[in-house]
From TrEMBL:
Subunit structure: Homooctamer.
Gene: hemB
Catalytic activity field: 2 5-aminolevulinate = porphobilinogen + 2 H2O + H(+)
Annotated organism of origin: Myceligenerans crystallogenes
Purpose of the protein: Catalyzes an early step in the biosynthesis of tetrapyrroles. Binds two molecules of 5-aminolevulinate per subunit, each at a distinct site, and catalyzes their condensation to form porphobilinogen.
Name of protein: Delta-aminolevulinic acid dehydratase
Entry-linked Gene3D superfamilies: Aldolase class I
């Protein structure tokens, strides 16, 4: 024993940047990051989203550029959200062959396939994911169709999701991501995809998706029409066990990957799902998580880069294999 009587000195391994880097248990890599992107039909110029500084609603043209940029940055994927010009009760543009989201998927596919302008070879490929949900497409803003009493009709909605998923697969989506929290949505979508010949289309299930105030800025991003809330289908933030059950059900229904959402306030759920899942686990750092950091940083109250990196590292540490984050491009450039 030393004279001080201290045997163990954990600070030793924190002594230099090189030592800290060597022993870091968690690392971020661009390939594990997925960038959410919004594209709005009929838009002539990209339109900044006021509540999400730095994020925009893309035109079809700028979407292609954004996807190419994401691929060049080495990101793992993009998650596409479409904002249609016309909305109706059943969200018919959601599965229209020429609907904005299907067009966006084709644009993204094309952008990834194209050779780099400087012809240093083809772009690193990237996974094209699409949000499989009706809320951007319905005139009432709910994630499903409504029954005569104005409630979201679970089983009638499943048929709409199935058609949407097939339309997205047909347009070239590698991954469809049902985010509406309807019971049985994964099984229904799997069956429809297989029947249409899309056995290889991946399902990323939003399994434990909570009714969260942190989606606030997203509602701006998609010009949401919603009045009221989604508490009859999204989960109660008070519940943990229920989130595990949702993940188990999605796995049993054939989900290829499961997701926990939001991420930052649900790290316990993320850890528990990661511990019991044999498939990749995703987490979504949602709009409000992003905007809180942006707002605080804009006021000079926190260091933007450090806070963004810390928040995403924490999500990874809690068990996420892949992370959807509006910081994906920033992080890729910070890691370079
Ligand atoms: C539903 C969907 C939402 C988000 C992703 N998919 C909105 C909601 O459930 O209300 C939120 C993402 C974010 O806040 O960044 N289509």
């Amino acid at each position: 024993m030393s004279q001080s009587g201290i045997v163990y000195r954990p600070r030793r391994l924190r002594g230099t940047p090189a030592l800290r880097r060597l022993v870091a248990e968690t690392r971020l890599h661009p390939a594990d990051l997925v960038l959410p992107l919004f594209v709005k039909e009929g838009l002539l110029e990209p339109s900044p989203i006021p509540s999400m500084p730095g994020q925009v609603q893309h035109t079809e043209e700028t979407l292609g550029k954004a996807v190419a940029e994401a691929a060049d940055a080495g990101l793992g994927g993009v998650m596409l959200f479409g904002i249609p010009e016309r909305r109706d009760a059943t969200g018919s543009q959601g599965d229209a062959e020429n609907g904005i989201l299907q067009r966006a998927i084709r644009i993204a596919r094309h952008a990834v396939a194209e050779a780099r302008p400087d012809s240093s070879g083809p772009r690193p490929s990237l996974v094209v994911m699409a949000d499989t949900c009706l809320d951007e497409f319905t005139d009432h803003g709910h994630c499903g169709v409504l029954d005569s009493a104005g409630r979201v009709d679970n089983d009638a909605t499943l048929d709409r999701y199935a058609r949407m998923a097939v339309a997205q697969a047909r347009a070239g989506a590698d991954v469809v991501a049902p985010s509406g929290m309807m019971d049985g949505q994964v099984a229904m979508i799997r069956e429809a995809l297989d029947e249409a010949g899309f056995e290889d289309t991946v399902i990323l299930a939003y399994s434990a998706k909570y009714a969260s105030a942190f989606y606030g800025p997203f509602r701006d991003a998609v010009d949401s029409q919603l009045e009221g809330d989604r508490r009859t289908y999204q989960m109660d933030p008070a519940n943990a066990r229920e989130g595990l059950r949702e993940a188990d059900l999605d796995l049993a229904e054939g989900a290829d990957m499961v997701m926990v959402k939001p991420a930052g306030s649900y790290l316990d759920i993320l850890r528990a799902v990661a511990d019991r899942s044999d498939v990749p686990v995703a987490a979504y750092q949602v709009s409000g998580e992003y905007s809180m950091i942006e707002a605080a940083a804009a006021n000079g109250w926190i260091d933007r880069r450090a806070a963004a990196l810390e928040s995403v590292t924490a999500i990874r540490r809690a068990g996420a294999d892949l992370i959807l984050t509006y910081y994906a491009l920033d992080i890729a450039s910070w890691l370079r």
